[in-house]
Specification:
The protein has helices at about 15-150, 155-170. With about 180 residues, it is mainly alpha-helical. It has one domain (about 40-170). The chain starts with 16 loop residues before the first helix and ends in a 6-residue tail after the last helix.
Length: about 180
């Protein structure tokens, strides 16, 4: 059978040898932990904390560098746009200048052609007038010879007629 059950009276806190042994063991355990276990754990935690702080500092520094590079890139892009604008402006001015030069050359060429045509027309007009004078002199000489019935000295007569024609041309009512 079973041994009889003995009920012990336990108070709120019975101080006995077991309790004292447990308190001593607990204090020894705290001492061992404080002396050999907690310092490495604290050092590891502090090292981890320093490492995290260093990583945060590096991340902040990297963010600042990235922001600075972004600003530099934006400035470079803006400068490139301004340079492109200046290049386009210079190209437009050069194109306008070339166009103006081409127009001026075309005008000058047209003037030169018109002037050459005028000179050719004047020269042709003078040749035509000279040819008409010669024909008129021949006609007048022939008419005078037929009317007078005799032949005068041809060269002297021709000079006389040419002088008369020149005098007629010099008169204000004479067509040119």
């Amino acid at each position: 059978m079973h041994p009889p059950v003995v009920y012990l009276e336990a108070g709120l806190l019975d101080i006995n040898g077991t309790l004292i042994a447990e308190i001593i063991a607990f204090l020894l355990m705290l001492g061992v932990l404080a002396r050999w276990v907690y310092p490495p754990i604290v050092r590891a935690a502090e090292a981890r904390q320093k490492q995290i702080k260093a990583q945060l500092d590096q991340a902040e520094k990297a963010r600042q560098e990235a922001e600075q590079r972004l600003n530099e890139a934006s400035a470079a892009i803006q400068e490139a746009r301004e340079e492109a604008g200046r290049i386009i402006e210079r190209a437009n001015r050069a194109a306008e200048r070339i166009q103006q030069e081409a127009q001026e050359k075309a005008r000058e060429e047209a003037r030169r052609i018109v002037e050459a045509a005028r000179r050719d027309i004047d020269a042709e007009r003078q040749r035509a007038i000279h040819a008409i004078r010669l024909q008129m002199a021949d006609l007048v000489t022939e008419a005078v010879r037929r009317i007078v019935g005799e032949s005068l000295d041809g060269e002297r007569h021709r000079k006389l007629i040419e002088t008369t024609i020149e005098q007629v041309e010099k008169e204000p009512s004479a067509p040119q």
